[in-house]
Amino acid sequence: MPRAKSDNDRKIFVLDTSVILYAHNSIMNFAEHDVVIPITVLEELDHFKKGNDTKNFEAREFIRLLDNLAKDNMIHNWTPLNGKTKGNFRVLMNPDNNINANIIFGEEKNDHKILNAALHLKQTEKNRRVILVSKDINLRLKAKSLDIHAEDYETGKIKNINELENTGKFILDNIDPLVINKLYENHSIESKHVLGTRKRKANAYYILKSEKNSVLAYYNAEDNTMERVDKKLAYNIKPKNAEQTFALHAILNPRIKLVSVQGVAGTGKTLLALAGALEQRRDFKQIYLARPIVPLSNKDIGYLPGDIKSKLNPYMEPLWDNLKFIQNQFKESDKEYQKISELVNQEKLVIQPLAYIRGRSLSNIFFIVDEAQNLTPHEVKTIISRAGENTKIVFTGDIFQIDTPYLDSQSNGLSYLIDRVKDHPLYAHIKLEKGERSELANLANDLL
Fold first, then answer.
1. Which residues are in the PIN domain (predicted)?
2. What is the reported pLDDT for 297?
3. Is 173 helix (H, G, I), strand (E, B) or coil?
4. Which of 123, 180, 325, 366 is spaced 20 to 30 Å from 357 by Cα?
């Protein structure tokens, strides 16, 4: 954001709880402008400080950060943020206003107290622009109805989501037929014969077409060659289209340590990742398959009946369904069928909520993270940063199918990963475009 020319040009940003839970250091990301934390936000954070989830970590870290910044100062007074280029912050107690959001909206709730804090600042800081920052769309709409300027927290957001659509796979037409023939005959060819002066992108996949034939290929940045990509079976699962072939190639490629597979429901993301993991089971100590828990209707799992296993089963069932599908490719008497049961019984293959995996050592592990679009960028970073020797991580998800209220297609962890790590030699990304679950599923995705 442009620097303020005078004190009156310095804005006042009022932060909602959702911003703190998204990024505990968000208070430091408003340049020279001032930041206000309503006391209601601290009260809400107090409920989040216990637990092992990422939001609990963010709450605890913010409280420590605030304590460190305040030192011996009274936090309801303006206090300098660290650094000469930063503004000030203060905690605003519940004010008395001429306009009361609780009365206007007919209900007393914490969101309305936060709106009252912004209204109070508008009345008392008339020469300055007051902006409410929240990742809660509904709260932003309520703010605008009260003539309060409201914005999403933009730091870390992907600016051009359409660019992610062109990451990982490319189609090249008018390729010399001799080049395609050489790829079929020799399996690989120097990249200059295919790409010419085009920019090389590490681990990019290509559909190369001439007038008469075509070939699937992969750019090997280490050898600077273009390699033919063939359809391969992985634990009896065969890719059904070019994108699935590319995804499985990346999953099976030992040079690639980090893979993201994006696609709508029914495109085979999780199935391919799990099949690829089973095919490489001898190369890893364990296979972890995990997904974040996003409670239905925003209710905690404590609302569900039964013990903890019964509460979690509904969330893990889709993962077990994929495992059963692979297992049912074989007869019960086949060793491959029995091997899957053996891997589960010996905990060589573990299916659990992501919260149960967090904190464990990730050495010699094939780690699949399903529904990664429901993770924050910090959660994705935390998972990858725990990778030890001989660990491979595959993230699967659909960046447009967000199930948590404070994330969107531009701010979720999967989009963040694709944008930040693209073209890295350890990383590959594939977008699956064609649904292969059934014609009925495709009808739902296309028409409903």
1. 11-141
2. 39
3. coil
4. 325
Closest CA to 327 of 390, 249, 235: 235
Give me the sheet containing 149-151, strands edge to edge. 79-80, 88-92, 34-38, 12-15, 130-133, 149-151
Instruction: State the amino acid at position 365 in one-letter form.
Output: I
**Cα gap 220→214, rounded to integer Å:** 19
Q: What is the dihedral of CA 431, 166, 377, 406, to 10 degrees?
A: -80
CA separation for the pair 223, 347 (Å, rounded): 38
> Within 13 Å and on the Cβ side, how many CA atoms surround 197?
0
- Listed as ranges, residues in the chain with pLDDT below 50 are 296-304, 307-308
- DSSP letter at 282? G
The strand pairing partners of 131, in sequence order, are 13, 149
Ordered alpha helix ranges (H), 358-412: 377-385
Cα dihedral value 372, 204, 365, 158, nearest 10: -30
Backbone angles phi, psi at 149, to 5 degrees: -70, 130
User: Is 15:131 a contact under the CB 8 Å cutoff?
Assistant: no
Distance between CA atoms of 287 and 213, rounded to whole angstroms? 39
Cβ atoms of 353 and 290 closer than 8 Å: yes
The Cα–Cα gap between 268 and 369 comes to 14
Helices (H) and strands (E) in the chain, counts: 16, 17
CB 360 within 8 A of CB 332: no
User: Mapped to the 3 state alphabet, what secondary structure does 195-257 carry?
Assistant: HCCCCCCCCCEEEEECCCCEEEEEEECCCCEEEECCCCCECCECCCCHHHHHHHHHHHCCCCC
Provide the b/e sequence for 157-190 (b: ≥16 CB within 10 Å): bbeebeebeebbbbebeebeeebbebbeeeeebe
The tokens for 425 are 């030699």
pTM of the shown model:
0.85
pLDDT at 310: 57
Helix (H, G, I), strand (E, B) or coil at 386: coil
Distance in angstroms (rounded) separating the CA atoms of residues 393 and 304:
31
Instruction: Identify which of 374, 383, 354, 369 has the alpha carbon closest to the alpha carbon of residue 415.
Output: 374
Residues near 131 by Cβ (< 8 Å), separated by ≥ 6?
11, 12, 13, 14, 149, 150, 151
Would you state the structure tokens that stand for residue 170, as one six-digit string? 């490319």
Angstrom distance (rounded) from CA 36 to CA 80:
12
The SS3 call for residue 379 is helix
pLDDT at site 312:
61
